[in-house]
Amino acid sequence: MKQSLPGICMTAIFLLIAVNRIKAQSNYDIYVFNVKTGTTKQLTKIPGAGEYNVTWSNNGKKIAHDVVGPIASPYVQSIFVTDVETGVSVPLAGAEGGNDAAWSPDGKVIAFDDYSEYPRNIYSVPASGGSRTLLRYNSHHASWNPQGTKIAFDDNYGYIGSKDVNTGQETFVTYYGDRPAWSPNGQYIAFDGWGWAGGGVWIVKIDTAGNPVAAPIQLTTSGYGPTWKNNSKELVFIDWPDGDPNLYSIPVTGGVAKKIAGRIGGFDKGDYDPTYSNDGQYIAWSSYTDPASLLNESSREAATTKLSLQSKSLLVQNYPNPFADETTISFTVAQPSHVTINIYSLTGQKINTLTDAEYKAGSYQLQWDGRTKQGQNLASGIYLCQLKTPDGMVVKKMLRIR
């Protein structure tokens, strides 16, 4: 299939975005914008890794996303699941090497394409992890219909179709498109028009079987990555009219796109991969975390530690977290006192005691190798680190990945 000039230009832009991400992959994290309050908070921060391509669980309590970096070894990247309340991220078993996760409407399975394969193929795994099932060969960017019975996909070459995951029946949607997104009411599929004149965000009206019933309509002349609001009346996508990619919205009926969220960064440090929560209250996306802001956070933490010396002891979050072989646990003692640091399982079973001794006021570090007091090497999972002193108790969650 011959690619048009706009398609070549958009492909070049996507390659540039990919290169920029690779160059700074460890600095991309997941942020969440609260539509009602207009506030933004950082949700993930996996040391030495980059996080992209968010999808929400049906109840809004978890997200699945790509994680790129050594933690995904031996793969370039894999799918992780993060608890929105605690911020704890764990790998999704069966989705190793995964990319572009898509949570099914009933919350039971997660579809993804395998980044480690060529050509890419779409699979699904149980949301709690397990064996993968092939959904569609030579395709990526899965998007579920509202009933969870079909996926929209593109075939790596700009052909967008839909497939019934139960019967295997496929329908044609459009050529020259990428990143399809099925509307919550099931009436439209939005997509990147990288091969169409002008590019930008497009929509095509479909019937219940997934067949197009009208010609595609162009909503914007630039931008990419559309995602639907829960009322199916609005799309959010990424655009960069001033050279800094941010989140923009546009009504499904067309009109002028408006900027709604994003962080200052520039094209090589922009905002990408937006997705609405099912209740329409939150938008999660991937954004560059500037190292300068990380330094500021460290400074604030140091200031907090200094203040804590005057009042109570402090347990700092272990680093790295998640960890594989060993992690460092830092703590500060406010005044000479007896300190106990215990490791527990989530069920409350005491696993190890790292220290049980008298300490002078000051800052200290201990290492834990993920073993019990008897030397047993523990499995992957979440463990609790408890600091006890006469002035109180502090608990931190730690994630081990083997």
UniProtKB/TrEMBL annotation:
Q: Which family does it belong to?
A: Belongs to the TolB family.
Q: What species is given as this protein's source?
A: Danxiaibacter flavus
Domain FlgD/Vpr Ig-like residue range list: 326-388
Source organism's superkingdom?
Bacteria
The record's Gene3D superfamilies line, in alphabetical order, gives: 2.60.40.4070, TolB, C-terminal domain
| PANTHER family the record matches | PROTEIN TOLB, PROTEIN TOLB HOMOLOG
Cross-referenced InterPro entries, in alphabetical order? 6-blade_b-propeller_TolB-like (IPR011042), FlgD/Vpr_Ig-like (IPR025965), Secre_tail (IPR026444), WD40 (IPR011659)
Q: What is this protein called?
A: FlgD immunoglobulin-like domain containing protein
Q: Where are the transmembrane segments?
A: none
One Pfam family hit: FlgD_ig
